[in-house]
Design goal:
6-stranded mixed sheet; about 30% strand; globular; Rossmann fold; about 280 residues; binds adenosine-5'-diphosphate; alpha/beta; 2 domains
Length: about 280
């Protein structure tokens, strides 16, 4: 079976600075894949290469079975893109934004109107169709971006930091939309620096740092690899911690300590693993 997304030894440099450094990765059809990393890790650059917006300096990228460098139009007709930079036009109405995108994708009428109605319905924006986009809330704007990306029925949806800056309820609502699309069979690649987003949504997680993929697997695989439990110890104004394979091992270690003041055992989470790997917090 052809992978939905395949990167082989991909490099990208800007003015001799290497921002993506030998990235190899395959995402299977139907997968919900999360690319996690601190600012500057190279996540957006990777998404920009996958969506044909910028070319790799070296290596091959195949999306939906097509080469992004040589078969751009085949790739573009099979992907939907929700990026921070490619925003909606706030002076146009919701419908006009959709109409414009539908025309760009050469969807003929009356099909175009039917697809616009369906996509707006899906993200619950039908009653806003005649409002200028500038009147929408942040969450509604993001839903409009998603509706627009869905118009031509993409096989793969790319989402760059889809919920950044949104309040918790709005984030949950977007998560449900994203999750339902994936349940219907759409392959998803999203970048984020929110741990809970990856834990809630993603089947598999790739952790990027300094342009390299430093870890890859399901949350359970990552926990298995780095340790399913940690012993925390309060050290002045910070916490020291140590990974253990299981909670039992962590409890055993704690039991052996002569002074247990300020110490506790808890299951490890993605944030622990991330901090362990990259040596810094995300925010
Ligand atoms: P992330 O999305 O993980 O925060 P980016 O892919 O945006 O990371 O950026 C990775 C690095 O590449 C950063 O150091 C950034 O400054 C640099 N970079 C990104 N785009 C450009 C560009 N167009 N020209 C020069 N440098 C860039």
């Amino acid at each position: 079976m052809t992978a939905a997304v395949s990167l082989r030894n991909v490099h990208k440099s800007y003015n001799k600075a290497l921002v993506v450094d030998g990235l190899s990765l395959e995402i299977q059809a139907g997968e919900m894949f999360g690319l996690l990393g601190p600012n500057g890790a190279g996540k957006s650059t990777t998404i920009r290469m996958l969506t044909t917006l910028t070319k790799p300096s070296e290596g091959q990228i195949y999306v939906a079975g097509y080469d992004v460098a040589r078969q751009r139009s085949q790739v573009k007709s099979r992907i939907g893109v929700v990026l921070q930079q490619i925003s909606i036009d706030s002076d146009l109405t919701v419908w006009e934004n959709m109409e414009y995108h539908g025309r760009l994708h050469h969807i003929p009428n009356p099909l175009r109107q039917k697809e616009i109605d369906q996509a707006l319905e899906y993200v619950e924006l039908s009653d806003r169709r005649n409002d200028p986009a500038k009147m929408l809330s942040g969450g509604m704007k993001r839903r409009l971006q998603i509706a627009r990306a869905l118009l031509h029925h993409p096989e793969i949806l790319f989402l760059d930091e889809p919920t950044v800056g949104l309040d918790p309820q709005t984030r949950r609502r977007l998560w449900e939309i994203i999750r339902n699309l994936n349940k219907q069979g759409m392959t998803m690649l999203l970048t984020t620096h929110y741990m809970d987003e990856v834990e809630y949504l993603c089947d598999r997680i790739g952790i990027m740092d300094n342009g390299k993929l430093i870890s890859l697997g399901t949350l359970e695989e990552l926990r298995q690899k780095y340790g399913k439990a940690i012993v925390m110890k309060q050290a002045r104004d910070a916490w020291d911690y140590k990974f253990f394979p299981t909670v039992e091992d962590a409890n055993l270690f704690l039991g052996q300590q002569p002074d247990k003041t300020g110490m506790m055992v808890r299951p490890s989470n993605l944030e622990d693993i991330f901090v362990e790997l990259t040596g810094r917090n995300l925010d």
